[in-house]
Amino acid sequence: MKHTDIKILFSDSEKFRDKSVTVCGWVRTWRDSKSISFIELNDGTCLRNVQLVIEKNIVDEASVKPALAVGTALQITGIFIPSERNGFEISVREITVLGECPVDFPLQKKHHTLEFLRTIPHLRPRTRYFEAVFAVRNELAFAIHKYFHKHGYKYVQTPILTGSDCEGAGEMFRVTTHPWNTAYKTEEEYYANDFFGAKASLTVSGQLEGEIAAMGLGKIYTFGPTFRAEHSNTPRHAAEFWHIEPEVCFCDLNEIIDIAEDFIKFIIGEVLENCPEELAFFNERAEKGLIEKLQTVISNDFVKVTYTEAVEILKKSGKQFNFPVEWGSDLQTEHEKYLTEEYYKKPVFVTDYPKDIKSFYMKQNSDGKTVAATDLLVPGVGEIIGCSEREADLNKLKEAMVKRNMPLEAYTEYLDTRKFGSVPHSGFGLGFERILMYVTGVSNIRDTLLYPRTVGSL
Length: 458
What we know:
This protein is α+β, with helices and mostly antiparallel strands and 458 residues long. It is built from 15 helices and 16 strands. Strands 6-10-11-16-15-14-13-12 form an eight-stranded mixed sheet. A five-stranded mixed barrel has the order 1-2-3-5-4. It has a three-stranded antiparallel sheet with strand order 7-9-8, with no helix packed on it.
């Protein structure tokens, strides 16, 4: 049906002044009196509602009554007129109810808790809060593609179904076509009779395939869903999330760190420029000082500190941490928060981690104890980027894999990239929902996804 988006009405108001317009949307609020009714209508194209002014001596009262219900879908034709209070509003001439909404519609109140809204994920996009979340999510995704396209990266789509575990942690969802009661004598027999004739899982990362692509294409990026069966019921973890993973040949750790910083600043800058209304909303509703924080991030250099230096800073802090700080142990959320929110008060790259707590594919440093890896930690969220120079030496890579009891035969194609013309190369992984949390101030990853998948919740 022919109509004008509310966003377009307000972005070019003078064009539509005193003209007949047709809009569609859902009733957010309404007020009624004997001679006049008011409706706030929203169509999802922007946070702003358009006010409908319904004079009952102009509009048939029989068509007004069914329209006065929160959640009802309407088509409205009227005159777009200036308003002292609202800038512009629509003086209604015709109302068509597209979809009635009964009184048991759960979103009758103006404000609901986020916990309640998680119980109705199929309806929460109809709220202002989640309209803003998904508007920023959309802009952020577009900015990511824009950055890599601008810098000559090729967008590749790596498999979601995989036979290898990139992280080596074993926290993978198994994929099978077998019915639940199928009985086999051995695991080998079970998988041999499955769809692929082998054990298959949902990918935890597209990195290994991304490295293979980069070895012929120079620099690539992936942007797609990944899955981890972690029993981590925290505000920062989800079983299904989106992942951005660039891979760059002829690039060492320092260069990829520079790329990561430039990338983060670019995508945040795009959101600041293109989502001012949404960020103002989150600045008020989610995190006071959000806009100032983001402007500071894009205007200042990030900190770079080695893991060893970070451990010393934490030990000398005088803080009583729940998890002891010792060289060789992974940094916990409380440690990351201290470094980013109290000590440096800005994003921090922590580099050169102990090799025993990092993945097999990371380049081993000459000290024999650390690897050329870094995590980008940001205030309020913690780690959002895991980054490393990859081990380009075939023998060292095999040695790291054997030490972790990884079956080399399952990684033949990956190892071939080191056998045939290996080059120094680096890459990073950015959790899309993590950066969305940082940019919006939303504190729970469940509130950044259309349907959050977490432990015990499908």
